[in-house]
């Protein structure tokens, strides 16, 4: 590009000098004699041609220089736009993280009877979080089989395997999990929550509901106080639909978990008071 600009500059200079020489020559000779007048008349069209060429070349040269400037400005603007986009994404990420921390602090203030171990999800079985996944905390961090995993919105699942540095969590969306349920509105302890597949939707199913239960759509389902495998009254989900299960003489409900498993990145393990024992009880 630099070589091209130099050649254009030389061309403009040569044409300009030639043009000035012709004008000077014809100006001195005009008015002296008929021959000079004839030469001047003859050269007038040539002068016009040189004027046109000179203007066109200067215009093109200005375009080349301006195009280079515009290109540089455009590159700089793209760079600044990319930096602003990165900062915006970073800001949103920090904002979301701050919101999650606030929610967890609020949850912990309401459930001070437990301690908590924070963990990050580092691997998903088969690329899906709905069956099992791995967290970055293990025996050296105090994690034990049977500990319950939550996030500020509700129940996530339970620890099923532990190594020194990492652990496996089986979520409530897994068909291998069973959680005793409590209907918040009626305070009924009825049914068991199990994982369920419904056209790839993230849902769970509440089975073995008593036939006389007053459970209804929109009811909030919590972990029950019966048994000691889960902390009591942790939110599980909301009832989407209910149907009669004539074969089992009861009802079945479909539940949408409060936890958004598709966006789950971190969680907390609930540490019970008897965490010194290997048999975890809440």
UniProtKB/TrEMBL annotation:
Keywords: Cell shape, Coiled coil. Residues 67-111 form a coiled coil. GO terms for biological process: regulation of cell shape. Residues 121-270 form the Rod shape-determining protein MreC beta-barrel core domain. It comes from the Bacteria. One of its GO terms (cellular component) is plasma membrane. Gene3D superfamilies: Rod shape-determining protein MreC, domain 1 (2.40.10.340), Rod shape-determining protein MreC, domain 2 (2.40.10.350). The keyword Coiled coil applies. InterPro entries: Cell/Rod_1, Cell/Rod_MreC_2, MreC, MreC_beta-barrel_core. Involved in formation and maintenance of cell shape. Belongs to the MreC family. PANTHER family: CELL SHAPE-DETERMINING PROTEIN MREC. This is Cell shape-determining protein MreC. It comes from Clostridium algidicarnis DSM 15099.
């Amino acid at each position: 590009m630099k070589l091209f600009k130099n050649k254009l500059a030389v061309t403009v200079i040569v044409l300009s000098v030639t043009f000035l020489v012709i004008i000077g020559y014809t100006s001195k000779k005009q008015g002296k004699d008929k021959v000079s007048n004839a030469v001047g008349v003859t050269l007038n069209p040539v002068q016009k041609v040189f004027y046109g060429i000179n203007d066109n070349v200067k215009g093109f040269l200005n375009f080349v220089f301006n195009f280079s400037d515009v290109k540089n400005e455009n590159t700089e603007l793209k760079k600044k736009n990319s930096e602003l986009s990165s900062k915006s994404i970073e800001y949103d990420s920090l904002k979301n993280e701050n919101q999650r921390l606030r929610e967890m602090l609020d949850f912990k203030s309401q459930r001070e009877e437990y301690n908590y171990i924070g963990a990050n999800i580092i691997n998903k079985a088969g690329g899906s979080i709905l069956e099992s996944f791995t967290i970055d905390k293990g025996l050296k961090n105090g994690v034990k089989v049977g500990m319950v995993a939550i996030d500020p919105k509700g129940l996530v699942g339970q620890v099923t395997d532990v190594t020194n540095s990492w652990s496996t969590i089986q979520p409530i969306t897994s068909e291998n999990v069973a959680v005793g349920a409590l209907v918040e509105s009626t305070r009924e302890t009825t049914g068991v929550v199990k994982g369920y597949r419904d056209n790839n939707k993230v849902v769970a199913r509440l089975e073995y509901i008593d036939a006389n239960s007053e459970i209804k759509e929109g009811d909030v389902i919590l972990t029950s106080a019966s048994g000691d495998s889960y902390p009591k009254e942790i939110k599980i989900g909301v009832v989407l639909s209910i149907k009669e299960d004539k074969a089992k003489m009861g009802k079945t409900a479909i539940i949408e978990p409060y936890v958004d498993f598709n966006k789950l990145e971190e969680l907390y393990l609930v540490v019970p008071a008897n965490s010194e024992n290997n048999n975890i009880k809440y």
